[in-house]
Every structure is written in structure tokens, then in C-alpha cells.
What does this fold into?
Amino acid sequence: MDSNSVSRRKFIGVAGGVAASAAIGGPASAATKKPAAKKPAVKKPAAAPVAVNKPGTGVVNYWNHFTAAAERAGFESVTAGFKKASPNIDLKVETIQNPDWMTKYINAVMSKSGPDAMMVTQARLADMARIGGMVDLNARAKAWPDFNDNPATVNNALALNGSQYALPVFAFIDWGYYRPDFFAAKGIKKVPTTLEEFRLAAIELTDPTKKIYGFGLRGGAGGGGFITKLLHAYNGPIIDPKTRKSTLELDAAVDALRFWVRLGTKDKCIPPTAASDGYAQFMGSFKAGGTAMVLHHTGSYVEITTPLKAEIEVKTFNYPKGPKAEMTNVSPLGNGLFKGTTNPDAGFEWISYWASKKAQVDFLQATGYWPTATGASADPFIKNTPAFRVAENALKIGWTSYTFPGVENWEINTILPNVQKALNETITPEQAARNIWTELRDITDTK
It folds into this structure.
């Protein structure tokens, strides 16, 4: 924050030369008299500090990547609230497909022409900051009264090298969904808690004659992130937080890829289309009764429980634990300002509104995305929904997303195609693992 305080004046006393007189027997000479005390100068009042966050007006162009129906519905509830709170701001929204996000962002930075505000995920933070299109929000964030409503760990997850790049609005909290009626039909009385229990349950729940598969594996767009979590479960942390070097062991990578790929090639407990199934396909199959278990996060809760009756037709469970660590991941999402914005005040007014407790609760109730603001998680929707006890446990056992440079590109362009090839049996799981392991060492400059 720029300082507008007035600097102190320095006063220097100057003794005037007085002619000495040697008058004898007379009054004291001028040289021996004390000079009259000077009155101190009147201090000017300090200038009032300039407001950091001024009321905004005009158009705010905003980029997001919400494509699911429940996300869009929740987002509309937030924008409707913002319109009432800030009628002088015209919010223009552009939705970008997740796989295209970084390309669009890079082009905007290069052309110096982008939005005023934009979404920021923890996983993308390092890359977005390194490319250079983000505004340091430190001064604005500290001047915003509600900034500390978020736990420091959540705010810090969207900060890098001392710069706060985004205000958090919710957290992705991993959990799975399962069909309790399918479990009951097979006599399975408890949800799996380890990856091996998960595999065995998926095999048992599979009935190809009825076109029912135990696990709806997402091997298409968006599927690379599951492998990062799986590698963590088999290896423990795959990146040293201090050196940013890879700590992934090749043997752990091989074991993880063998487990995942063999669900299809050997155990036959995933749909034949799994290698190309994106969000719509793997989630749609689960809702239609084609699979018994899927792995996702809390943000799809309302979408899932609209066609399926909560606690009767669908329940939640924590991700199964791996040999070395939890697979469960927690990752905050926030909003930041684009460096080329011409309307930063209105942009910050928008992103701080969504970061407020009210907006977070509105979004929660429409989607299930977990709020980050203190007190928002005490909303009755969470307290009165049994499924969210699983999310509360995930917050205790989960680890936060990796945010090293290149992580998303690695997941999309290295992990995903290698896993797809292995699922389609054009390469072996061992070959896929080595390619993934090698590329991680390259992008982290690990010798």
C-alpha cells in the first residue's frame, strides 16, 4: 500500500551572533542573555490515506470455466446477487472450456488483451504467475475487511512468492459416489477404504450381461488429474516442496499405472469406453445406473442427487487410500485480476463479492462446492446433509494440490495420452509409467 503520510520536519536551531560588549558595572550584556524560546511550528494534519479499494463502475469482463449445468445454475445465483449489490457494474461473462484455458490465457498475455477478472485454480497458479498475466492483490486483499474470513492456509494456497494472486471462493474436496442398492444386491456391506478393497468391490459389482460396471473410470478429457492423485497414493509426495524437484520413484509410478490400467485390461470392471470418457460420459453413466462407483468431488453433489435420491440411491465415500498415502485431495479455487485490466476497481469489487460468505453459501446450495469463508461451512445445507460428513473427513486427511510450473500441461499432454494408450493396449502400463516419470523429471529439472 502506498503511504500518504506527511514526513516530519526537522528543525535546526541556529545561534545568532550577538556583539559582545564589555560594559563594566552596567546591566548584563546581550551576549549573556538567554535567547527567547521559539514557538514550535504548527504541525499540519496528516493527509487522509487514499482508499485502496474504490467503488467500481462500468464493464467488467470475466473469464470462467464452468460448463456443467449445476455449476452454471450456481454461478447465476452468484451473479444475480452481485447485480443487486453492485448495480453500477456490468458483468460480462465468457465461459472457456477447461482444456483450452491455458492456451487462451497465454494468447491474452502475449497480445496484452484479456479480461478484467478471471478464475484461478491452485494447480494453475504457478504457470499463470510465471507467464505474467496476474495482478498482485496483496494491498487490495489486506484492505478488504473479509480477507481473513478465510483460513490463512486457504489464502496462502492462492499465493506465491509473497504475492496474493486470487481470493478463494470455494474448495474442490475429493469424494466418491456409490450406489448402495448395487452394493446390497451383491452383499457388500461396507464401502472400500483402500485401493485393493476398491478394486475387489469394482470386480464384484460388475455384471457385463446387464451392462453394469463396478467403476466409472474417467479416461478422457479431465482424467489426467486422477493419475497425479494415484501417484501420490503410491509414492507419497511426488514433489519436494522446498526444491521443487521430483521425488517420484519409478517403481511407485509403475505400480500405480499397473493398478489403474488393469482395471480395464485385466479386471474388466470399467466400461469399454473408459479411455475416452470425459465428464459427461462417466457421470452420465453413473446417474443412469451403468456404473456402481465414481470418483469426483463435492461440486457435483446437487447434480447427482437431483435424479438420484440422496442416502437411498446414492451415497458418498472417501477416496480409497493407497499403499503410501491418501489419494484424497483438497484444492481451493479463486478469482484474480488480469494484469492488463482497465477497470481494476470494479474487477476487485466483483471478485471480493464472490469471495464473501453470502455468495459462497449461494453457490454451495446450488452445487455442493465447499465454501472457504469461516462460518459459511456452518450453513444448514452442510450441517443437515449426511453426505457432507465425508467431506469433513476429507478436509482432515486430504493434501493440497501441486502447483509447480508445468503440472497441468504434464497431466494433459503426458499423463492422459499415455494412460489412454495403455488402456487401449497399444503400450504397456510400464511404458506409460516410464514416460510419465521421465517427463516429470524433465519439467522439474530433476537430475
